[in-house]
Amino acid sequence: MERDAVDLIVEQWARARPDLDASPMRVLGRLSRVTRIVERELKALFNEFGLERGEFDVLATLRRAGSPDGMTAGMLARSSMVTSGAVTNRLDRLVAKGYVTRDVDPANRRTVVVALTPAGRELIDRAVAAHLDNERRILAALDRHRQDDLAAILRTLLLSLGDEADDPRALGDP
C-alpha cells in the first residue's frame, strides 16, 4: 500500500509517544493537507480569470441567487462568513473591475443592493464552468461512488460541528 506524509507523521508519534493515540491525525491531518493543496489549485484557477477567491465567491453567490435585481450587501456578508468590511473591500474591487454595481435601494435608503453587470455575469459563467472542471480533475482519483460516500461522511462531520445551513441560498460557494 502506498504511504503518504500523514502515515509517516502518525508513525513518528507512535514511536515518540506510544502512550498517545495519534489516529485522529489520520483524518484531520489529511483534511488539512488536502485543503492546502486544493486552495493552491483553486487560487491558480481564479488567477486565470483575474479574480481572488473572495471575489469569485461574491460573483458566484450573485449568479446563483438568480435575481437580476441582485442581493443586499448584508445578504452577501452573511453568505461569505466574513466581516462586512471584507465584503466591502471585495465589492470595491469588483465595482472597479466593472463586474458588479452597488446602488442604494430606492425603497429603503439604508440598504445597498449589489448586482452583476453583463461583464460580471459573463465572467462568472466562464469561471464557474472552469471551476467545476477543475474540481472534477482534483477528485478524479475517486470514482462517483467514493465521492458520494466522502461527501456524506464530511456532511455528517460538518453537521456535528454546528455547520448547518439556515438558508441554503445564502451560503458561499465551496
Automatic annotation (TrEMBL):
Listed InterPro entries: HTH_MarR-typ, Tscrpt_reg_MarR-type_CS, WH-like_DNA-bd_sf, WH_DNA-bd_sf
Pfam family, one: MarR
Highest taxon of the lineage: Bacteria
HTH marR-type domain sequence ranges: 24-159
GO molecular function terms attached to this record: DNA binding; DNA-binding transcription factor activity
Keyword terms of this UniProt record: DNA-binding, Transcription, Transcription regulation
SMART domains (alphabetical): HTH_MARR (SM00347)
The UniProt record lists the keyword Transcription: yes
PANTHER family: TRANSCRIPTIONAL REGULATOR, MARR, TRANSCRIPTIONAL REPRESSOR OF EMRAB OPERON
Name the record gives this protein: DNA-binding MarR family transcriptional regulator
Organism: Thermocatellispora tengchongensis
Species lineage: Bacteria, Bacillati, Actinomycetota, Actinomycetes, Streptosporangiales
